[in-house]
Amino acid sequence: MLFPSGEFLFVYLPIVLAGFFLFARFAGVQVAAAWLALSSFFFYGFWRIEDLPLLAGSIAFNYFAGSLIQRAPEAPVSSRSVLILAISVNLLLLAYFKYSNFLLESATALLGVGVKSVDVTLPIGISFFTFTQIAYLVDSYAGKVRERNPLHYALFVTYFPHLIAGPVLHHAEMMPQFARSETYRPRVMLMVLGLAFLAVGLAKKVLVADSAAPFANALFDAAGNQSVNTAEAWHGVLAYTIQIYYDFSGYSDMAVGLSLLFGVRLPYNFDSPYKARSIVDFWRRWHMTLSRFLRDYLYVALGGNRRGVARRYLNLGITMLLGGLWHGASWTFVVWGGLHGAFLVINHGWRHLRHRIANRLLWSESPTLRPVGDALALALTLTCVMVAWVFFRAASVEDAAKILLAMFGSIGGASPGVAETGPNNWVWLAISLAFAIIAPNSQQMIDGRLRPRLERLAASPASDLGTGAAMGAT
Q: How far apart are CA 430 and CA 109, in angstroms?
């Protein structure tokens, strides 16, 4: 089931939501939590029921491993040994299902020896639930796990609003919410905010992302078997730049909204990333929960910035390469991650240089020229992001190179089969991009503007919306 589908919005969601609060009211909060966990398993199994044993087995294994790590003094083996074994099992499973054929194909190309591919189907959301549980294991080893209820753990991993498209959740921000009794009481204000997030997310996905998709598909589908000209290349890449932002941001808004209906607050995953004036700033705004995971559990584990400038830049590059591979088993994703790693290294290097000579630069101190510098920085950042998106979307590195050559090369003639690049399409794409750059984002509109108004309304004597204190408890 997709979030924007009728079967989800008008059948699954009302049944699960009603059952959650009815069970909480008449059977107790543990029954309600079990209902929500079972409903999340059903949601996952609806995609492909054969993957349910893998998800259930992964949850059982990691909870048991986490318990052994947490009980290190009484355990027959050291917590470090359990941690290494558990992480290895998780990564081996992920490698088998997601990367086995990629590794075999790469070995074939490198060694020139034919190797038969593995007949394996990628389980939905395996990267999300694997990384989520690895973080839990690492935090168990570090003594950071406080809430250990197995039902809440299963719900934390399977919770349907995030299971397929994120965000990447952290146990410390989720499991305590499932343990609070107020989570299981319906609150009108939360539902209003949740419906607002859900509506905004649906609009982003259905009205903008799905409308931009045909223009992007036309370019990237054509790139494999015909030439494209400069206008077509920029038109298709701009369309994909808009599509991926509104699609991913829309799903994240829908996840936040759906979760608020159940009284649970998910972390925000986007903060207007196309407003970024540097790649460093972009990664603070784009897929924020993945950036947090990569920073806390990979970059820091590699040594972070504690071992000198050269090692810091190497760690950045490795982190982004692996972050690219996390998105998909293809060299295009490796190149995408490598590009962002290189952009980040250049960005950090430039910041270091700028700090050393900033007082000598006229524009750095000039209020008049500062807006010009900001505009140029935004344009350069967005251009770098768009160049990287070409590799993220293209079917092969060769197709991506062909599109980039068209974007920055000579203007050719129109190509049959590529989407029409008329003035109306350009205007629509430009407006969609401008809205992402200029307009307030969903949390600014809903949490920043709508929520205070609801709280003021709730504080009035005649209101039945609940209390501001109850709202703040989320």
A: 41
Q: Which of 327, 348, 352, 355 is catalytic?
A: 327
Indicate the SS3 state at residue 297. Answer: helix
Q: Report the alpha-carbon distance of residue 463 to residue 470 in Å, rounded.
A: 14
Q: Report whether 77 contacts 66 (CB < 8 A).
A: no
- Tell whether the torsion through CA atoms of 156, 8, 267 and 380 is positive or negative: positive
The answer to whether the CB of 236 falls within 8 A of the CB of 393 is no
What gap in Å lies between CA 69 and CA 63, rounded to an integer? 10
327 is catalytic: yes
**Phi, psi (rounded to 5 degrees) for 123:** -65, 140
Helical packing angle, 397-408 and 370-393, nearest 10°: 140
Give per-residue pLDDT as tens, 98-147: 998 888 888 777 776 666 777 788 888 899 899 999 999 999 998 888 88
- Give pTM, 2 decimals: 0.89
Residues 6+ apart with CB under 8 A from 443: 256, 268, 271
State mean pLDDT over 240-267: 95
157 CB-contact burial (10 Å; exposed 0-12 / middle 13-18 / buried 19+): buried
Q: How far apart are CA 230 and CA 414, in angstroms?
A: 9
Give residue-wise pLDDT tens across range 180-218: 999 999 999 999 999 999 999 999 999 999 999 999 999
- Copy the structure tokens of residue 413: 């003639």
Burial of 314 (0-12, 13-18, 19+ CB in 10 A): middle
